[in-house]
User: What shape does this take?
Amino acid sequence: MAKKMCAVVTAPKPRYQPEPPYTPEAREARLQGYSIWATVIGENGRLKDEMVIQPLGMGLDEQAVQTLRTWTFKPATCGGKPVSVPVVLEVYFEMPN
Assistant: This one.
């Protein structure tokens, strides 16, 4: 039997998104920019299968993935039921003034 397709999928909504900390090396170099990740927001609102698609370096990508794993979302829905959806997330590192 074929799986039913959903006509309307609601987007996931952020619930908890702390910013990742800087590494001492990146702070000293005053490195700023985006670490970009492909991942899946699961039916439980948690990320899984994180994969960096644009690394930033100097340990910031490791900080980003550790922090991403703490993020939570109101999951996407299809017909009122939670569903997993693929997403691309940008984690921005900006030096404080």
The chain has a mean pLDDT of 94. The chain has one domain: 11-93.
